[in-house]
Amino acid sequence: MDLFENIRESIRAIKSNLLRTVLTGLIISIGIMSLVGILTAVDGMKNSLNQTFSSLGANSFDIRKKYNSGRGNNGQGRTDKVYPDITYDQAVKYKELMEAKSQVSLSANISGATVVKSVTDKTNPNINVIAGDEFYLSGQNLNLERGRAFSNYELELGSNVAIIGKEISDKLFPKTDPINQYISFLGRRFKVVGELEKRGSSMGGSGGDRMILIPLETGRQIPQQGNGTLTYNIKTSISKPEELTYVMGEATGVMRNVRQDKLGQEESFEIRRSDSLIQSLNEITGYLKVGGFIIGFITLLGASVGLMNIMMVSVNERTREIGVRKALGATAMQIQQQFLIEAIVICILGGLVGIFLGILMGNGIASLIGDGGFIVPWIWVFVGLTICVLVGVLSGYYPAHRASRLDPIESLRYE
C-alpha cells in the first residue's frame, strides 16, 4: 500500500463517515476562522486607517496648543500647568515668518456640536464648524465636488459664505443643487458656495462629510461660548518631504520666539508630523496581531483536542478493519500513515472553509472602521494552511500510532 493508495483510502474513509467528518472539520474551521478572521480584521483596519492618515500628507506637520493629560490637581498637591491658547496674532506672525519656506494654513474649531438648518430641514447636532484660510482645503487634502473656494474678498472681509460636507448636502438639499442656497447655524445665515467630495467614514466618524468650512475672519466674528476665545491650529506643508525634519526644527524655534517661551523652558505648543500617526498605528496593530494570534491559537488548541478525541473513536470503530489490513500484509508504518493522512485531510478541508469564513469575517469587521477595500491576507492564508497541517499531524499522530501498534489477531477478534 503506497502513499497514493493511503490517500485514496483516507478519502474513502472520510466519505463513509461524512457526518463525523463534517463535525470534525467544523471544529477546525472555527479555530482557523477565529485566527484568520482576527488577523484579517487587524490588517483591514490598518489599511483603512493608513489611507486616512496618508491623505493628510507625509510632508506636513501640525502645531497646536499643548494640553496636559490630567485635569486640575494631579493628586500630589500640585496643579497641572495650563498653557495659553495660540492667539490669532501669534498664528499670523508664524505664518509670515515661515511662508517663504513652506505653505502655512491657519484654522480654528468654532463648534463641534452644531445644528444646521435650511428652509425646509435641519441636521442632527453633530456638525463641526471650522474656520480656515485660503490654504486650508489644500493643506487637508479636501477636494470640491462642486462650487468654488472662498475668494480673497470673502476671506479678507469675513463674508457669510460656507463650504459644506457631502452628508450635510444630502440631508438639507437631497433633490436640489446646494450651491447658492442658504443655511443657518450659530445665529447667522450663510450662503453655500461649495460642496466637498465624499470622504466616507474614518475611525467611526465621517471626516469632512459632517464639516462646514467658513472663512477664518468670519469665524473670528462669531461669539464663543465659555471663555470667549479661540485657539488656532497651524498646519505647515513643504514641497520636499526629505526636508521635513529640518523645517520642523526651524518651525520650533520660530514658534518659541512667537510664543515667547523662555530659554530652558519647555514648549507651550505641540508639533506633530502626519506620519507619526502612522507609526503609532503600526505599534498598536502590532499588539493587536499578537493578541489575535494568541486567541486564535487557544481556539485551535481546543480544536486539536477535539480532533484527537474523534480520531481515537475512529481507531476503536475500525479496529477489525485494521486487523484485516495487517493480515493482508500492511505494515505498522502504512497503518500509521493512513490515519495520519486522514487527520491531515480533515484539517485541510476544515481549514479551507475556516479561511474563507475568516476572510469574510475580518473584512466585515474592518468595514465598520472605514472603507479600506476588500483584502485577502495571503500571508495569513498560508499560515492558516500550515497550522492546519501541523494540527493534523499533532492530533492524528497518537491515534495513528496506537492503530499501528494493534495486534492483528486481537483486532480480528474485536467486535
Automatic annotation (TrEMBL):
Origin species: Pontibacter lucknowensis
Highest taxon of source: Bacteria
Name listed for the protein in its UniProt record: Putative ABC transport system permease protein
GO CC terms, sorted: plasma membrane
Chief localisation class: membrane
Family, similarity comment: Belongs to the ABC-4 integral membrane protein family.
Pfam families: FtsX, MacB_PCD
Stretches that traverse the bilayer: 21-42, 286-310, 343-369, 375-398
InterPro entries: ABC3_permease_C, MacB_PCD, Macrolide_Exporter_MacB
Ranges for domain MacB-like periplasmic core: 21-222
PANTHER family: ABC TRANSPORTER PERMEASE YTRF, MEMBRANE COMPONENT OF TRANSPORTER-RELATED
Domain ABC3 transporter permease C-terminal positions: 293-408
Molecular function (Gene Ontology), one example: transmembrane transporter activity
Localization: Cell membrane
Assigned keywords, A-Z: Cell membrane, Membrane, Transmembrane, Transmembrane helix
Recorded topology in the membrane: Multi-pass membrane protein
